[in-house]
Amino acid sequence: MAFADWPSSDGQNMLLYPWLSDFRVNNEKFVEHGHRLAGVLIGMVSVALACAGWREGGRHRGWTLGILLAVIAQGGLGGARVLFDRGTLAMLHSITGACFFSFCLIFRLSLLDGWRDWMRQSDSRFSVNGFAFSLLAPLVVLAQYVLGGALRHLHILRTEHVVSAVFVTVVCVAAAWHLLTASHRLLRYCGIFVVAALSTQVLLGLGALATRFGAGALGYVAVSGSFEQAVVCSLHTVTGMFLFAATNCSALSVLRLRAAGRLTGLTVTQADLLRGGAA
Q: For this UniProt entry, which segments traverse the membrane (predicted)?
């Protein structure tokens, strides 16, 4: 809320606003206008991507058009947050931003040179439990992201967010374990991504709690609006996006391999049923 207007900035055209002049004078306006310009850049890249996808044809058209529409919706939400000054809109803007990031990353994953080769590889070690935890992980991460947004923008549900973090950690660790112990290379890559994002997120979560609410045992007193609080809490939010994207990529990979019949450990054959009945 450094600016009260949108899409203009203090009544000036967004692209003509003297952004750099605020660097020393008004840090809040410098950061906020930088955020707006970043949104414009993402929009321009999305338009170019949609044009390239349209030329390619096939499934690329749907993916790239979806990305462009998502960018437009995200920009509209950001503008509504400014015009109506509602914490709920700020929270929704953050949540949809995380979903948009996952959407883009999943699309990029499907374009990797090795994607088709991975879809032809099989894995007999990946179990039903691994399948279940891989699908559950992005759902609990999204729920945790919502709770975090409520804490950051509405200043509520602090205890629920902390308690839920423990549950999310357990689910993600279980999912990562099954992914890392799989024989399929793509699943192992996904497991590494989940572990890296989760480890960083837990550390940043502890830092966010300390910088926002203080750490009496360490003699640290939180200062509202301090630089370290802004940096740590923002990094915590961004890493949450990476964790959400990591679990979404894992779930997509598992679903695609399952649909292709490549996760043979999940297949229950008639012989298996007969053996079970005999036992």
A: 37-55, 62-84, 90-111, 131-150, 162-180, 192-215, 235-255
